[in-house]
Amino acid sequence: xxxxxxxxxxxxxxxxxxxxxxxxxxxxxxxxxxxxxxxxxxxxxxxxxxxxxxxxxxxxxxxxxxxxxxxxxxxxxxxxxxxxxxxxxxxxxxxxxxxxxxxxxxxxxxxxxxxxxxxxxxxxxxxxxxxxxxxxxxxxxxxxxxxxxxxxxxxxxxxxxxxxxxxxxxxxxxxxxxxxxxxxxxxxxxxxxxxxxxxxxxxxxxxxxxxxxxxxxxxxxxxxxxxxxxxxxxxxxxxxxxxxxxxxxxxxxxxxxxxxxxxxxxxxxxxxxxxxxxxxxxxxxxxxxxxxxxxxxxxxxxxxxxxxxxxxxxxxxxxxxxxxxxxxxxxxxxxxxxxxxxxxxxxxxxxxxxxxxxxxxxxxxxxx
Amino acid sequence: xxxxxxxxxxxxxxxxxxxxxxxxxxxxxxxxxxxxxxxxxxxxxxxxxxxxxxxxxxxxxxxxxxxxxxxxxxxxxxxxxxxxxxxxxxxxxxxxxxxxxxxxxxxxxxxxxxxxxxxxxxxxxxxxxxxxxxxxxxxxxxxxxxxxxxxxxxxxxxxxxxxxxxxxxxxxxxxxxxxxxxxxxxxxxxxxxxxxxxxxxxxxxxxxxxxxxxxxxxxxxxxxxxxxxxxxxxxxxxxxxxxxxxxxxxxxxxxxxxxxxxxxxxxxxxxxxxxxxxxxxxxxxxxxxxxxxxxxxxxxxxxxxxxxxxxxxxxxxxxxxxxxxxxxxxxxxxxxxxxxxxxxxxxxxxxxxxxxxxxxxxxxxxxx
Lengths: 368, 368
Known about the structure:
Distance between the termini of chain A: 33 Å
Oligomer: homodimer
CATH class of the largest domain in chain A: Alpha Beta
Largest interface: A-B, 53 and 53 residues
Shape of chain A: globular
C-alpha cells in the first residue's frame, strides 16, 4: 500500500524542488525536516542509470551547521573521536559524532574553512541543537547556526565530464574528500569530490537559495549529450556499496565501533572528545555487536520498514536494518547489526521478514 | 500532484501503526522522524467527525524526553522562560523552550513526575539533543533520554464518555492540563486532559510499545456506540482554534513573544532561563512581528507548502504559514506572522499564494 505525503511548510522544500518536480519525481522521504527525492523512474531504473551515466541529486537535506568564532576548532574536536589536529583547510573529514556515552548522534562530513570557521554537513538528526547546547553549556566563544547552503550532488561514472563543462577542467584535479572553490556565474561554490554513492562524483555547496535553479539548469543544459538525469541516493546502490544510513543502520543506540567506524576514532592527545572515556571503556570491554553485509538469497523482498530480527537457534542475535533486491548481484543485499559470535564471514542465520522467514548469510564485505 | 512516501526504518513506525493502517489511513506526514497520520476519509470528513463525535489519534510522534536525576528540576528551569517553581506533581505545563538568543527551539508540554523526574512531550525538533548538550556542557547530574512512551489521544465532544468506559468515571474529574495515573489491564498509564484540538479530550501516555495495540483495540471496542473513528490532528480545526505548529507557524527564527506566548514567559527570581537576557532585551526593544489569525476570503485554496508573502503597498510585511478552507466559517482560515504596524484587527493586506494574489484580513482572534 502506498501512502501519500501531506505537504506543509514544516517539511521544507529546497532551492531545487521546482526542478525536481518538473523532472518527474514520484516519491519522497523526509530527512532533516526537508523533502528528499527517492524515486524518479523507478528505484531499479534509477539504479541502472546511476551506474552507467551521470545524475544530478538534490541533497539539500544535508543541511550545514556553521561553527564560527575563536572556539570553533576547539568545539569541533569535542564533538568527535576523530583527530582533527592535522586537518587542512581544503579537506572534508567524515566525522562520527557521539554523546558523553560514546553513542552516535550523527555521522556528518566536516568541511574546514579555517581554524575559526567550519561547516558540518549532517545526516538525519538536529545536530545543531547538540552543538549549540554544548557550546552554551561550556560557555564557548562561537556562533552555531544553519547557513543558507544547499548541496547539489553530481554522481555517476560521467560526473567528471559533466562537471568540467560547467566548472572547467580544474574539477578533475580535486582529490577524494578535498575541495576547491570554483566560479559559477558571478559567484563561486565549494566543490568537493564526495557523495553518497560508490560511482564517483562531486558535491557542490550552493550558497544562497536563489542560486539553486540556475546551477540546476546549467548542469542539465550541459549534460544533454551525457544522458544526464535527475537522481537521488539509491537504496540498492548504497546497500551494495556499504554506505550506512543514520537512523536506518545506526542510531543513538550504537557506538562508532559497532558501526565499523573504528578507523575514524583515534583518540587525540588531550582526549578532548566528549565521549572519550565511554569509548575507552567500550574498547577495553570488547564489542558486543557489529555492522555487517547480509545476503538474503531467494525472491526479491520489499524494502524494510522496520528492523527485521536475525535469529540463530531461536535466539535473536541481531537485526537487518536496510534491504533491497539487487539486480546486479541477484540476491537481496542488506545491512545488519550482528552480535559477537555470529558475525564471521559465511555465518548462516535466519531473518524474520514481513514475507516470512528467510535464510541470511553474514558477509565480511559489501558488494564492491 | 500527490507524491508517495518511501518507507524505511528511519521513518519510525509507532506502536499503533498496525491499527492506523488497518483503519484506512491514506496520508502521512513525518514528525520527529516518525509517521504521523494526516488523513483517513478526507481532511474535511475527519474535521466534521471530530467536531461531533470522538476520535482516537496516534500521536506517538509527541516523543517524550525524560530528565532523571538530582539536577532534573534545575535543568528544566534553564530551558524555559516559564516559572516552574510552583508546579505540582500532577500538572502539565505548556513550556516554550528557547536558546541563548531567546529563539524558539520547541514548544512542548512538560509533565512533572516529581522534583527529580520530568517528561517533556515534544513538538517537531530533536530537543533531546539540546537538553543533553546543555546538561553535558554544564556538568549537571541528570540523565536525559527518550523512554518507550507513546501518547494516544482521545479527542472530540464525546471523549469523556469513551474514556469512562475504558478507564472508569475517575477520568471525568481530571482537570485541564492535569493528569492522573489510571489502571489499564495489569498496568497503569498517565492520563492527562490535553490534546491538539479545541474539541476537548485526553492524552494517554502509553508506557511500553507492546501495550499500544491492546489499548487501541479496547478504545475501539468500547466506542462502537459513540461512533468512534480513527483521526489525527486536523489542519482545518487546528487553524480555526489557533493551535500553532512548530516548524510551520514558528521556527528557530521566532521568539515566544512573537508567537503570542508572553503569558508563559514570566522571568523566575534567579533568572535561571538560558535565554533570559536575550528575552529581556527583546521586551525592552518592543516586538518586531507577531502571530495573527488571517482570513483569506474567496475560493478554497490548496494548503500552504511554503510561507506565502503578505504584502502592503508592494512591501513585504509578513507571511502566512498555515492555511486551509474552513467549511464552517466559509473562508480560508490561516495563521501568519505580521510586522508591527500591520497587525491591528481588520487590517487589509495582500497575500501571494501559488494560485495568485488574494485579499488577506488580519484578525485579532481565531475562530473560537
